[in-house]
Write a structure and sequence with these properties.
Low-confidence stretches: 14-31, 205-224
Oligomer: single chain
CATH topology: OB fold (Dihydrolipoamide Acetyltransferase, E2P)
Strand order of the largest sheet: 3-4-5-7-6
Shape: globular
Helix content: 25-40%
Mean pLDDT: 78
Number of helices: 5
């Protein structure tokens, strides 16, 4: 009797493990597919901007950057040529702790839901600081950002790079923008994490892997 129970228990545990593996695999496939979809959207927007004659800084060049927050970044020689120079870059917005009229935000090659939950690698994150007197609304679509590129080479930098005195706008031909809706829970989480970051209690990003994409955002509301 005991042997039978042990055997049945082992079978049940095996089924649970198989189901868990399938669920995890499906989630990874879904995330990978969403990342590819977002990269395709960004590529279309980049094509629109290039067709208009605008020169763009490429994410592939930024992604040659190596290092960590502790060691500091090691920039590609080609990227260093853009330091302190005006640049244009297409990407997706992510808030830090300002969720509507933002004077600063993050720009990434693919969108994320919450940076403290999903932790993209430092090489994929740019701190955008708006031109004085200008504000930005968080939107779902890819945008074009123009400003001065800053390369932060010192160890311990929260961000490898930034764009200062920035302006932004729609990067797509249609120009339609949809406000990014963020739940109160995520806003609270982000605000607490940003406070810890600013006080030096934690580094913002440490991950060295590929960017993660959001797969369960709240439906977005149209921008007024």
């Amino acid at each position: 009797m005991r042997r039978r129970m042990v055997k049945e228990l082992g079978t049940a545990l095996g089924v649970v493990v198989i189901l868990a593996v399938l669920v995890f695999g499906n989630l990874q496939v879904k995330r990978g597919g969403l990342r590819e979809e977002m990269e395709a959207k960004r590529a279309v927007a980049e094509g629109v901007q290039k067709k208009s004659g605008l020169s763009l800084l490429s994410w592939s060049l930024l992604q040659k950057t190596r290092g960590s927050a502790k060691s500091g970044p090691f920039f590609d020689a080609e990227l260093k040529k853009f330091g302190s120079q005006p640049v244009n870059l297409v990407g997706f917005m992510a808030p830090i702790d300002e969720f509507k009229d933002a004077s600063y935000f993050m720009l990434l090659p693919v969108p994320i839901g919450c940076f403290f939950c999903e932790a993209p690698p430092l090489r994929d994150v740019i701190l955008v600081e708006m031109e004085k007197g200008r504000k930005a609304t968080m939107v779902e679509e890819p945008i074009i950002v123009s400003g001065t590129l800053v390369l932060n080479e010192a160890p311990g930098s929260q961000f490898f790079y930034g764009i200062k005195n920035a302006n932004w706008g729609s990067a797509t031909q249609e120009g339609t923008l949809t406000r990014k809706e963020i739940s109160i829970e995520h806003q609270t989480h982000m605000t607490r994490g940003a406070d810890e970051m600013k006080s030096g209690q934690q580094q913002l990003f440490e991950a060295e892997g590929g960017p993660q994409t959001a797969d369960g955002n709240v439906p977005a509301a149209p921008v007024d």
